[in-house]
Amino acid sequence: MTQVSGGGAAGQELPPAAVDEDVFLAERRTWTPLKIAIWATIALLGGLGWVMLALVRGETVNAIWFVFAAVSTYLIAYRFYSTYIERKLLKPDDRRATPAEYAENGQDFVPTDRRVLYGHHFAAIAGAGPLVGPVLAAQMGYLPGTIWIIVGVIVAGAVQDYLVLFFSMRRGGRSLGQMAREELGRVGGTAALVATLSIMIILIAVLTLVVVNALGESPWGVFSVALTIPIALFMGVYLRFLRPGKVSEVSWIGFVLLIAAIIAGGWVAETEWGQALFTLDRVTIAWGIIIYGFVAAVLPVWLLLAPRDYLSTFMKIGTIVLLAVAIIVVRPELAAPAFSEFAGRDDGPVVAGSLFPFLFVTIACGALSGFHALISSGTTPKLVEKERQTRFIGYGGMLMESFVAIMALVAALSIDRGLYFAMNVPASLTEGTVEGAAAFVNSLGLMNVNVTPDQLASTAALVGEESIVSRTGGAPTLAVGLANIMQQFIGGPAMMSFWYHFAIMFEALFILTAVDAGTRVARFMLQDAIGTVVPKFKDTSWRVGAWICTALMVGGWGAILVMGVTDPLGGINTLFPLFGIANQLLAAIALAVCLALVARRGQVRYLWIIAVPLAFAAVVTITASMFKIFSPKPAIGYWAQHFAFREAIAAGETSFGNAATPEAMAAVVRNTFIQGSLSILFVSLAIIVIVAAVLSAWRSIAIGGRPELEDPEIASRIYAPSGLIASPSEKELEKRWTEAVGDRVRAGH
Length: 749
Fold this sequence. Notes:
This protein is mainly α and 749 residues long. It has 28 helices and four strands. The strands form two sheets. It has a two-stranded antiparallel sheet with strand order 1-2.
């Protein structure tokens, strides 16, 4: 028994802080006939789904097989592979207090209910990547993206998220840069810190750019998304002061208010005053998000960040599950080929570059994302109640994001291929008109593709938009695809406009939650970096330091955002390749740090769990970086494009390539210089970190492991179940705790 004062009556004898290890493992290993039948059915459905997608060839493929293949594979991976990693590699101990418990300060370190934290973590990691990347990669066909999203997440993405979260939690919630500096020495650690800070600026900028493109000239979306902020503030106060611990209660309240915000947005958008007030241009929206990012990052985490993320998770997971159900019921046939005409070429109009390596950096967050490592070593490890919860939150959260990516891919594939290209190529190629878009798409010479201006205009009218031509960024394409599937499930064509704007709201919420959490994490990292020179900055509760560092980071990504919004060639088309490469380079850095940490433990036998995804990520991202730096083709290489436009300007040209004006040409020269320079910086830093990590791991292996750098073990004085659904033994122990101290322990107080 654990003695505690303050959890109940002073000196009260409390139940254990964790279920006995033998009992816990015995429950997990028990196989009943029913359990065997369930898992056999899951395996059969998954196998059938993969056979239909990969081997059966026809003019169309039914979308239902994507759902069966993905869900079955995720369930098997979570039940068996993540359990293997937990048992063999990490060995969590719920008797140990987490930083949220022993360092609780009511600001950044707060024990948070696992369900709320799962919502916060999932909302924070699930930004633009799983929505935009698969949509852009749909240009290459459905099979390459499907394989990478599902297989990649199991062996790479979810593994990275789980390991980084666990190791950060064991080290007091330290950031990835801090852990790298401790483990890799001055050179490797400094390179990792500079890389994470600079890459983070690019990642957040591109995330916000997708929101801006989705909300631009959309009063419905602007109003509804803005309304989620006061709703989240109310939820934070409600759960903190009015009804502590009443998670289910506040969940229902938040859900009702969220639906009301969506419906109200439709009403407001139909009024003259609503259109006048909430129809904002992209630059205005960009500045609004910049201000929001600063405020959200400096407020206490329980007030806005955690409840807003939890709130948005209802919409995120709910929408994806609803879409999956609709696919199963409607069973739409997808006309897209398994491998498209652009799978073997490098001149795709949406994303330039060959399938290898550019598919793997275009589909970033759905399979592997370095941004997640920053969240997993940022806000989340400071909030987790018990060590075993890291599997549910880290590995399980990433699987859900992968499913979002699969649904985004299906939605993009479900619309007419001609419409897909008309929406996703920049205005410089379509002239921004239905006539120009139809002419360009038909000039591509794609099999069975013949789009007309009337088709593009009627589709825009159906979804309640002025135009859908060159709505780049992936979000509008996903919204059209989702609306097309959902209207067949509920409401018919008359509901297309509602479902389209519902999807826009869904996507904007998705991304904004990554922006506010990402900015907060960036602030932590910058405070840590400055703290090596001015120690006061290391104190994350010091408000002045927090405000200064937040302003610096917001200023960094805000400047890139404004550059992207005003890019004449379409900011997302030029910035997303850099986003994908930077994101995957950061993933390679995170995996390299994990490799060194596991080697320090002396667990050589299980290093392959990290070495395999690290090797793949390193090869892919370094190769992609070399293409972007050295390719002589202007459509692929930043420097090739930079010098081509410089020479055109020097020759007195007033238009060149896709730039129609001298101002546009100058913008291309400026932007490609920035992007090319950043590409060189990022890949150089990543190589330094990977080499330093391999050398560190080698030194550890040579001497059979080195002393751990984890925080000293402190006995836990609270209890919480390990997963979403408590096991029988966990329910019994939870009941004993409730009888002893009430709901306060489960609320983290």
